[in-house]
Design goal:
Elements (H helix, E strand, L loop, with lengths): L7 E3 L4 E5 L5 H8 L4 E4 L4 E5 L2 H9 L4 H11 L6 H13 L3 E5 L5 E6 L2 H8 L4 H4 E5 L2 E5 L3 H10 L5 E2 L27 H11 L10 E5 L6 H12 L3 E5 L2 H14 L7 E4 L9 E5 H4 L14 H4 L4 E5 L6 H4 L2 H5 L2 E6 L9 H7 L3 E4 L2 H6 L6 E8 L3 H9 L2 H9 L3 H11 L6 E4 L3 H11 L3 E2 L5 H12 L5 E4 L14 E4 L7 H9 L9 E8 L3 H15 L4 E5 L6
Parallel strand pairs: 5-9, 10-15, 10-16, 11-13, 11-14, 12-13, 14-15, 17-22, 17-23, 18-20, 18-21, 19-20, 21-22
Antiparallel strand pairs: 1-2, 2-4, 3-4, 5-6, 6-8, 7-8
Helix pairs in contact: 2-4, 3-4, 7-15, 8-9, 17-18, 22-23
């Protein structure tokens, strides 16, 4: 007989349904979180999916098939389907079936297979047989430089590599964390920040981490603090890679504010400066710069300029494709990826797993909101008509141009003006995709604007003025999507976005999630009956998965 007091329903399509109102919800959620990915979290029932990648994340934390199945059975109202049990045993067994070990000679590695069938499959694989040589019973030899390439090939085949090659030790760096930051505020790690750091380093009971992997937490929850704590725990020279120059400067400010590191200890490696110091902070952009498509990437040498003991990948879900190629250097070093969402629109999450490491820790957005560590947020989609004069050009335009016509609907300026006029107490960001549209709205609002073409010094001065409350309205392009700390921003108006990008939606909401006295509000203005509606629905999906509900309003210019 089913036990109706239990909160979980396990289905044969590998989905899990979790009721949120019962007394067992929290314990059940914590038990399934290591091996199931949250898909949707509306008001009453949360949906999870058990995937190969989610099971391999669990396996990397030391959780085997028996424990996964036992946890499901513990909380399930009904018997767990046999097909689910078979799926779990199959894919959990794949983790560890292929192991990477140090080679017998310098510059080489060994790949071993536990199963003869897998060994034969790899022996005859078109690409792998060119870079791996059979060297013994179910064993291959490969060059150290092929470490990452082989791992990516194998995960695509469904065999995640258990990488047991020892990580190299970096150059030592001695410093302390401050108990009182230079800003005058007390400084200590929150409980979840300490748990995340310990999970990454392998000292947390939920994980067997060895200093590589990703931490997934909401914007505004203090991921930078976790990285600083990890650097301090390891006491080693570190390379930090972030999204833009403004973010680099914020990293440097945080390091100086919260540690005893001096300005001489911290280097900036950007388009404007090329400093290499014990802690060096650079951008993805400078790393991937080259003079033309046929040239090498000259700044990749930064990976070997010093004996780094840790590489931190800020916003790891944005990891550019060229950086995936620097596999030998990044595989030998402890590496910490940080992100609010592992969603990649190019579906390369498995490559992040292989090259940076498995997910070591995550925490639900709503959980941190309930505890007051991030702001409560109200999300509203405002649908507006397309002006009659644009209807014909929209009707005959190709799909991509349809999206742009809808995105640049001129009525969006009037709607944004109304929201701003009704929000005199808020610090407001107007965010968009198209530069010409942003300039028009900035002119109409008499507001300063930040785009990629604005000099970094002017950009950072506007951020400073906004933080200080000297300006209360700022128009920004997608350069402000990531790693920009604007703690007092309380209202964001999105007038256009990058098609259906879910991670962009999450990052833009994240601009207003720093804790504050007032609730945050996020408006998305969308042209009704257009392709923009479809893309908006996809963009909002990630936030719906985190428990955010979009309220829907219809704006009519003829309404009184």
């Amino acid at each position: 007989m089913p036990d109706q007091t239990l909160p979980l329903i396990v289905q044969s399509d590998r989905t899990l349904l979790l009721e949120v109102h019962g007394e067992h919800y929290v314990h059940a959620r914590d038990d399934i979180a290591p091996f199931a990915e949250l898909v949707k979290s509306p008001e009453h029932i949360h949906s999870y999916i058990v995937s190969p990648l989610s099971l391999w994340n669990a396996a990397a934390m030391g959780m085997g098939a028996d424990e996964v199945i036992a946890r499901m059975m513990k909380w399930s109202k009904y018997p767990v389907p046999d097909s689910m049990i078979t799926f779990i045993r199959d894919f959990c067994a794949r983790y560890g079936s292929v192991k990477l070990l140090a080679g017998d000679t310098p510059g080489t590695l060994k790949l071993t297979c536990t199963d003869e069938r897998i060994f034969q499959e790899l022996t005859h694989h078109t690409h792998l047989k060119k870079i791996m040589q059979v060297s013994g019973d179910r064993t291959f030899t490969l060059a150290l430089l092929e470490r990452g390439t082989v791992k990516v090939h194998l995960i695509k085949l469904g065999y995640p590599v258990e990488d047991l090659v020892p990580l190299r030790e970096g150059a030592p760096l001695s410093f302390s964390l401050r108990k009182t930051a230079l800003s005058g505020r007390p400084f200590s790690l929150r409980n979840y920040q300490r748990e995340a750091m310990e999970a990454f380093l392998g000292s947390h009971p939920r994980t067997l981490g060895l200093g590589y992997g990703t931490v997934v937490m909401p914007c505004g929850s203090g991921k930078t603090v976790i990285a600083i704590a990890a650097i301090h725990a390891l006491q080693t020279e570190t390379l930090v890679i972030s999204t833009n120059t403004a973010a680099v400067h914020q990293w440097i400010d945080e390091l100086l504010d919260k540690t005893t590191l001096s300005e001489e200890d911290i280097g900036e490696y950007t388009g404007g400066k090329k400093e290499i110091r014990p802690v060096t902070v650079c951008t993805y952009q400078v790393l991937t710069w080259r003079s033309d498509k046929l040239s090498d990437f000259p700044h990749f040498s930064l990976f070997t300029k010093k004996r780094w003991g840790l590489i931190v990948y800020d916003e790891v879900h944005l990891l550019p494709a060229p950086v995936f190629r620097i596999t030998a250097e990044i595989q030998a070093t402890r590496r910490l990826g940080m992100t609010a969402t592992l969603v990649r629109e190019d579906k390369r999450e498995d490559e992040v797993f292989s090259l940076i490491g498995p997910k070591r820790y995550d925490v639900p957005w709503k959980e941190l909101e309930q505890k007051g560590w991030i702001a409560s947020a109200v999300c509203t989609e405002i649908r507006i008509p397309l002006p009659e004069k644009l209807e014909l050009s929209y009707a005959v335009a190709p799909k991509r141009q349809k999206f742009r016509i809808a995105s640049e609907n001129p009525l969006k300026i009037r709607v944004a003006q109304e929201i701003i006029e009704n929000s005199p107490e808020d610090q407001i960001l107007v965010i968009g995709q198209y530069i010409s549209q942003l300039h028009r709205i900035a002119e109409a609002l008499h507001a300063p604007i930040i785009t990629g073409s604005l000099a970094n010094s002017k950009r950072e001065e506007l951020y400073r003025q906004f933080k200080a409350g000297e300006i209360k309205l700022l128009v920004v392009s997608k350069v402000a999507n990531f790693a920009i700390d604007l703690p007092d921003a309380s209202l964001a108006i999105q007038i256009s976005g990058t098609f259906g990008s879910r991670q962009e939606e999450a990052q833009r909401l994240g601009r207003i999630l720093r804790p504050k006295e007032r609730n945050a509000r996020f408006y998305n203005i969308v042209t009704r009956y257009s392709t923009e509606e479809d893309f908006a629905a996809n963009r909002q999906r990630f936030l719906a998965e985190q428990g955010y509900t979009y309220h829907l309003e219809v704006w009519d210019e003829l309404a009184p």
